[in-house]
Each structure stands twice: as structure tokens, then as C-alpha cells.
Specification:
alpha+beta; five-stranded antiparallel sheet; 5 strands
Length: about 130
């Protein structure tokens, strides 16, 4: 099983169902968050930078300029990572960014995988998640 956390935050690409990391980065840099919560969010951010590699593939194309169309999902065995995500989710929701957790047995065509996550080109039902 794979797990993805999404928000209704509209990112720079006008995608309405963006991932939690983009929303968290926005909040970290905004004037809306107080110092205590920014420090909490920064601690979680640093933890993910230390313990989760960024995918190096986002599509199935050999063209380096191909659009980024994949979505990243946690493996359900990544319990420490998922626990840290809930810390991040709590802060986002406190600032009016509701987060939804999605579960899939097959999130799509895998273009990147490590011990904790996969990055997949979404199956047809999930293509709406990248709009």
C-alpha cells in the first residue's frame, strides 16, 4: 500500500491538489506563520532533508526537459517518515491548509523508488491530482 498527503493549496503551477512539501515550503517562507511554528516546521523539514532522498526521476522520458508529471507516495512500511508527515500536517492544518491522506495499492507507473517512497506517473483516476 502507498500513501500520499495532498492539500488544497494552489502552488506556483496552479495545481490545486499539491503535495504537502510544496505547501509546507510556502508556509515556512510566509509571514503568516509565527516563530514557534516556523521552528517546528523547520525541524521537520530538516529531518526529511536528512532522511528522505528527493526523487531524481519524475517522468518516463529520456528527454530532460519533459514535464514533471509524477507523484510521490510513501510506502506504508515507512512508519517513521509517515509519523513525521503527521507532524507537518498538524502545522499546515493549524494554518488553514486542510490535508487529505490518499491510499493506493497501485499508484501508477514507477519512475523512481527507494526504501521509503515511489514516484509514479499516475493511473487514470489519479491524473486529476496533478491539475
Amino acid at each position: 500500500m502507498y500513501i500520499r498527503f495532498i492539500t488544497q493549496y494552489e502552488n506556483d503551477y496552479e495545481e490545486m491538489r499539491t503535495g504537502v512539501f510544496r505547501a509546507a515550503n510556502y508556509l515556512r517562507k510566509s509571514e503568516f506563520i509565527d516563530d514557534y511554528d516556523r521552528q517546528r516546521l523547520d525541524r521537520v523539514w530538516v529531518w526529511f532533508n536528512d532522511y528522505l532522498d528527493a526523487p531524481d526521476r519524475f517522468n518516463h522520458s529520456k528527454n530532460r526537459n519533459a514535464p514533471y508529471i509524477s507523484l510521490s507516495w510513501f510506502k506504508d512500511t515507512s512508519t517513521k517518515h509517515i509519523a513525521r508527515m503527521y507532524e507537518m500536517v498538524g502545522i499546515l492544518e493549524q494554518y488553514g491548509m486542510p490535508v487529505k491522506k490518499i491510499r493506493r495499492r497501485n499508484p501508477g507507473l514507477v519512475v523512481y523508488e527507494d526504501d521509503y517512497q515511489v514516484s509514479c506517473i499516475p493511473n487514470r483516476p489519479d491524473k486529476r491530482l496533478v491539475r
